[in-house]
From TrEMBL:
Superkingdom as given in the UniProt entry: Bacteria
Membrane topology per record: Multi-pass membrane protein
Encoding gene per record: secD
Protein name stated in the entry: Protein translocase subunit SecD
Residues annotated as domain SecDF P1 head subdomain: 305-432
NCBIfam families noted in UniProt: 2A0604s01, secD
Lineage: Bacteria, Pseudomonadati, Pseudomonadota, Gammaproteobacteria, Alteromonadales
């Protein structure tokens, strides 16, 4: 029978609409003004902290709707937006500098809906407000670290081949390798050129010294810089995610800069602290022959460095780095057989080989774990670039009991310290320090104004389309308007399901989707009119109208979808936001304008004897 859907297809349409309505529903509940509390390094929030702060806020007349403790973070939902800043100041003064206190907006989704997986769309920086940073990667430090790694590689290769050298040092012009005779230089040059294709080796011997100069090639320097930015982007994204900032935007800009946007965060100082929590570890052997007392007085042996433990105890370590955090693939807090906290470390294959070879020759000797942080203190170098302060402390000294491989543990920590160190290491290590060269704060009031303007544009545009369709296509226009409404609901639902971020250009994409969604129905209805004028029956006209218009609608939407896909692939920021909503809108409009309206038309007129259509 013409114009009749099988039961399964009608059920499919109903189920899709129900699912779309369910996942779009959380967006109508809005957000609660909130204050978020998280422990910074080696400090934690717990039930006692929650009780203490609840009492503090209550005693100061601040109405707390709900306080939540989850994922080592506290969230206080407030009844009034005016109390948000006051609550943040009270909590900050109560807890001190050991905790991160930030303003936030928490979804007000009911618990029953959240338990079923419902969650609102994430809003971008331009709609929700937040902070924007432009960060610069210290490329000189990235190259220096790579040169240090090359020095260690050269030493290892020359020793393995038993080629004697008198010294390897990093100079301003490159890495200088000194030899005692010409024969050793010749053998070394042949070996190193064969095993280090990325380096350029030049014989720079003088009358008194046989010397080889190793310089990184231009291609390799470019690769090192590119890798430094790429790895730092991943690290920063992981850091922010691990520390609880929802939906951060981390994008590359130019050769050595990274854009970081943190929606919902209004406290620039605390946001800097979150980004400043960039840390790594280095493993060094303890210099057992050093006189610690003399080292404290300034007489540190050559090849060693003086560091301090958290307790203030001095420790003299060898300068040579056995292993860095770059090789860490996993870090989890755990307990040893005596229930003492520790951090279980997993290394990649290369790191495992390096660590195995290093510990093989040092069984029975003490090895120290050095915790390193780089922080922007607002200082400047003579050339105007941002100066980063490097802080390092020894967090563990342990005796190597046996040859170790890809897995080992760091002990001597408290439970809080082990959890925090595992979090920082798990998120990755910066291959080079970064500095903030630009910062910008977008207030929530501006975000609310952007939302209002965007919604107004969508409502006005949709109202005009709805009125036109009702007047021009009558009953079929009403069906098209239903499909258009369901289409917007499905766009919101899909974006909520995918945790996509809605930006102001994204709202523009939705406005465009309104026009495109109804365009498919216009093509179908005009084709039905043509079939009726050609003398077809009502049932034949409906059947031919939907069937013949499908290819035209598909062609138009597929080409637009491909364009949006290209915009998403090569665009950044605002362009991506527009492309995401446009692609989702195209996909949902294809369903609602073809399958959805056809189901309604079939239910109302399909298989019936009708002489005239209201079209």
């Amino acid at each position: 029978m013409l114009n009749k859907y099988p039961i399964w297809k009608n059920l499919m349409v109903v189920i899709v609409l129900i699912i779309g309505g369910f996942y779009a529903l959380p967006n109508i509940f809005g957000e609660d003004p909130a204050v978020q509390v998280a422990g910074s390094r080696f400090a934690e929030v717990n039930v006692s902290t929650q009780t203490q702060l609840n009492d503090l806020l209550a005693s100061n007349g601040i109405d707390v709707k709900k306080s939540e403790l989850a994922n080592d973070q506290l969230l206080f939902r407030l009844a009034h937006a005016d109390d948000q800043l006051k609550a943040k100041e009270l909590i900050s003064s109560q807890l001190g500098d050991k905790y991160t206190v930030a303003l936030n907006l928490a979804p007000a989704t009911p618990d029953w809906l959240a338990d079923l997986g419902g969650a609102p769309m994430k809003l971008g920086l331009d709609l929700r407000g937040g902070v924007h940073f432009l960060m610069e990667v210290d490329m000189s430090e990235a190259i220096r670290k790579m040169e240090e790694a090359k020095v260690a590689d050269f030493r290892s290769q020359l020793r393995k081949e038993r080629i004697r050298y008198s010294g390897i040092k990093i100079k301003s012009r490159g890495i200088e390798i000194k030899f005692r005779n010409e024969e050793a230089l010749s053998k070394a040059e042949f070996l190193l050129k064969r095993t280090n294709n990325e380096m350029v080796f030049t014989d720079v011997s003088t009358d008194s010294q046989q010397m080889l100069l190793a310089v990184m090639s231009e291609e390799y320097i470019k690769q090192v810089k590119n890798d430094a930015v790429s790895q730092n982007m991943t690290t920063i994204r992981n850091r922010v995610n691990q520390l609880g900032v929802a939906e951060p935007v981390v994008q590359r800009q130019g050769a050595d800069r990274i854009i970081v946007e943190l929606p919902g965060v209004q406290d620039t100082a605390r946001a800097k602290e979150i980004l400043g929590a960039t840390a790594s570890i280095e493993l060094h052997m303890v210099d057992q022959n050093a006189d610690v007392g003399r080292a404290v007085r300034g007489h540190v042996p050559a090849g060693s460095v003086l560091y301090y433990r958290r307790s203030g105890e001095p420790v003299v370590l060898k300068k040579k780095v056995i292993l860095t955090g770059n090789y860490i693939t996993d870090a989890q807090p755990s307990f040893d057989e005596y229930s003492r906290p520790q951090v279980s470390i997993g290394l990649d294959a290369k790191g495992g080989n390096i660590f195995s070879n290093a510990t093989k020759d040092n069984v029975g000797k003490p090895m120290a774990t050095l915790f390193i942080e780089y922080k922007d203190k607002g200082k400047r170098n003579p050339d105007g670039s941002v100066k980063l302060d490097k802080t390092a402390e020894v967090i563990s000294v342990a005796t190597i009991q046996q040859r170790l491989g890809r897995n080992f543990v760091i002990n001597g920590l408290t439970q809080v310290e082990s959890q925090e160190l595992a979090l920082l290491l798990r998120a990755g290590a910066l291959i080079a320090p970064v500095s903030i060269v630009e910062e910008r704060t977008i207030g929530p009031s501006l975000g609310a104004e952007n939302i209002q303007n965007g919604l107004s544009a969508m409502i006005y545009g949709m109202a005009i389309v709805l009125v036109f369709m009702l007047i021009y296509y009558r009953a079929f226009g009403f069906i098209a308007n239903l499909a258009l409404s369901f289409n917007l609901i499905m766009v919101v639902a899909v974006m909520s399901m995918l945790s996509a971020v809605l930006t102001l250009p994204g709202i523009a994409g939705m406005v465009l989707t309104v026009g495109m969604a109804v365009d498919g129905n216009v093509l179908i209805y005009e084709r039905i009119r043509e079939e009726l004028r050609a003398g077809r029956s009502v049932q034949q006209a409906i059947h031919e109208g939907y069937g013949n218009a499908f290819s035209t609608i598909a062609d138009a939407n597929i080409t637009t979808f491909i364009t949006a896909l290209i915009l998403f692939a090569i665009g950044t920021g605002a362009v991506k936001g527009f492309a995401v909503t446009l692609m989702i809108g195209i996909a949902t409009s294809m369903f609602t304008s073809i399958v959805g309206t056809r189901a309604i038309v079939n239910a109302l007129w399909g298989g019936k004897r009708i002489k005239k259509l209201s079209i």
